[in-house]
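Q: How do we represent a protein-ligand complex in a form that can be generated token by token?
A: Start from the inputs.
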Amino acid sequence: MAAKIISGNEVSQQMKDEMKLEVAELKAKGLQPCLAVILVGEDPASKVYVSNKKKACEYIGIRSLETRLPAETTTEELLKVVNGYNNDPSVHGILCQLPLPKHIPETKILRAIVPEKDVDCFHPFNVGLISIGEVRFLPCTPAGCLELIKRGGFETSGKDVAILGRSNIVGRPLSNMLDQRTMNATVFMCHTKTKNLKEKCAGADIVIAAMGQPEFVKADMVKEGAVVIDVGINRVDAPGTEKGWKLVGDVAFDEVKEKAAAITPVPGGVGPMTIAMLMKNTLTAAREAAGLK
Ligand code: BQF
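Then emit the structure tokens for the protein with BQF bound:
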């Protein structure tokens, strides 16, 4: 049985169309949602991500502001920019594109964004809210994974979920969300020191691969009929192609798709959903700032 391919391109497009209508309503009430993006340095992938975010804002009708700073920017200079946006009431969401240059402490910057505008949901206060099941902002990539499961027509309740990777950005918040009473999944977190990882994955109803290893998850690690969500974005050599490289996920797509009930592609899977969820958080921030709902 070949798997259903859950398209993040399609689902995110649908969400963006829904949000477009919502923004039109907010504008009619005199509210113009606004997202501020800070990019430090010249990382080419980061530039693409920032441009994806700006394009999504434009499509939906969210105003977007951008501050580009050189790689040599000091922590103090960056904090000034963050504070400027913190204190600007017309700005509802603020994000600082990661990764930051090595001399800038990420945690210090992420904690400087006021929690009310923390649309990436990286501030420890918002992370804490997630872990106690109080939802304001949703961490974008984890929420994107869950939305793909839901809109793909699959349940989490009573399911065993294997999460590969324990990053603060994906694996950890996902596990915090999935075992809440709203989702009712049983989670096992897998990482480099996990024993019998293959067997643990192969026992799961849902596998979420987020460890950043190209095509790590093979068919023998996946149960027949499982749902497989691929968070990985790895650039690998592809001799003979135009660019000389291609993007692959953390899942060996071609073999796993023959065994799974559903699988997300890379690109066009979780990636575009991350952007859609960021837009959703920005609307939440704007609504809450205006005292709506
Ligand atoms: C797609 C990100 C690692 C580190 C920092 C669409 C994106 C990616 C892929 C995108 C990501 C990854 C983002 C696709 C934002 C997701 O078509 O498959 C969109 O823009 N992302 C980021 O801002 O920072 C990252 C991954």
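The longest strand covers residues 34-40. The pocket of BQF is lined by residues 49, 52, 98, 233, 266-268, 271-272, 274-275 (CB under 6 Å).
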